[in-house]
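Read as amino acids, tokens; as here:

___
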Amino acid sequence: MALLEQIKNSGDIQQFSRKELRLLANEIRNRIIDVVSKNGGHLASSLGAVELTLAIHYVFDLPKDTLIWDVGHQAYAHKLLTGRNKRFDTLRQYKGLSGFTKIKESPYDGFTVGHSSTSISAGLGVCYGKYLNGDESDVISVIGDGSLTAGLAYEGLNQAGDLKKRNLIVILNDNDMSISPNVGALSSFLSRTFSAKYLQSMRNQFGTFLKSLPRIGDDIYQIAKRSEESFKTFVTPGMLFEAFNFDYFGPIDGHNLDHLIDILTNIKNPKDPVLLHVTTIKGKGYAPAEKNPVYFHGVGSFAIDTGKSNAKPNGIPSYTQVFGSQMVNLGKKNSKIVAVTAAMPEGTGLIEFSKAFPDRFFDVGIAEQHAVTFSAGLASRGLKPVVAIYSTFLQRAFDQILHDVCIDAHPVVFAIDRGGIVGEDGPTHHGLFDYSYLRCMPHMTIMAPKDENELARMLVTAIQHNGPVALRYPRGMGAGVKIDENPLPLEIGRGEVICEGDDLLIIAVGKSVCEAVKAGRLLEEKNIRSTIINARFVKPLDADLIGSYAVKINKIITVEEHVLDGGFGSAVLEMLIDRGITGFSLKRIGIRDCFVEHGPSDVLRRDYEVDSIAIMKAAFELYDGKDI
């Protein structure tokens, strides 16, 4: 019987020998590779953390001891060890296991996560909560080295440094990677290594220097030489964490189970906060993932033997690809354009721009707040920064957009990828809140394209606009339309009428325009003829255009792939009321007051009622009270 099949909960592996644990590690890797090759998911991160996961579950008493994973995309092995092996085939599937840790899914998941750099702060809160409840069990926060580029991690470290006699253990999983290779001075510091010969020479020189100090030199030397590890703390990353009053151990090999188990056993139940620094290989155990960890960070289905994607190209570029190619084209014409991203040059489509204009490309690491304020600084000196960040991650920089960009109306362009429903990554990654949190900001212009050609035109518009602009576009393939060779700018705040009918007014924005057109065709078969307006702009709305049709057609539907509270439909309703237009009936199609779970995007649009069928249903309810 396979070892993995014998595990019902975390404690079962404590009965295994260390030799059996190494065999179990291979079984876990094979299981992860098999499922992710079919379902897609975060492969490289989880493969790199297998031995670390086994060691944590072997040494600690989970879930009494609390394990918190940063981001959660490295926790697939953790799921397999905590009673979820039989359901693991449902990973990232509709109504199946989440791709991240989730409190509602398992008592072994210490915190629900999806964004980076939260594990230390959350762990510290759990730690104090346990103390106040009289609970002396341990809290283990696992954080990746890429997550240490975010300020939140240091805010947690700073408070934790004052923590005395609480059982907090922070494990730094160091693989030189976040999603893309790490950047910045901190990355260089963490990766500082020394050969044994060089280290020996440095130690001898340092020892001679200490001994030479008058009166106190020999005592200091004896303290410093107690172990090679304590000496290495002076010259390796340990001194950073020691400065935060953490007891630092490492770096150690994160794939050596014996060492991991021994050191975790020695540091459990600590009197002071502890940081264990382990080094791992992202994608460990699967050659294609080790060779290309960026691609296999988040991957679709693939052939295990080759690592090649199973997706069949249809020749239609994604919105991300269109954005990336247009950035290169515009960059050639305008030397003031600079691109900024937060650890995602591949994901945001900026790789080609970074190659073409290396001096005008900035990857700031997982630091969205810094990216925004940095861009405001660039804009204040006459440059045109384009900040490419996923919708879900831009949420983290709300204050910086409001204060540092909008107050002085700096001409920063926010290229907001993954706007709307994004599929299998679930509630932490759907971009369903951006209209609301941006619409309230003075000076902000917000637009969303119906197709890839409109995206190209909107990017030109945004570059030419002298003020902050948010350009929001969806994940996935475009509509298959031809892109103009020289895209022309749009007039700010001007929508377009796609078709005209006297019975119903449908006002849609972004990807939802396509759903509105589908619904319009189906409704025409029912003898309901629609005027469909592509609003293009959420702010400012084309009040003249929408208002003129609202006066003539008193049955109105607004459509958006966004939460209803404070969204596009709310903006339309506010505008109509402010203009004194009355006598209409209006239904808003959008996401109700809930978080959208994970699953295929088309299924989610159907179940959360933001597709063409939902528009038809609303039309029938408005028109004559019928349902379809």
In short: The CA atoms of residues 117 and 203 lie 34 Å apart. Confidence is low (pLDDT under 50) at residues 191-200, 220-235. The first strand starts at residue 66 and ends at 69. DSSP finds 25 helices and 17 strands in the chain.
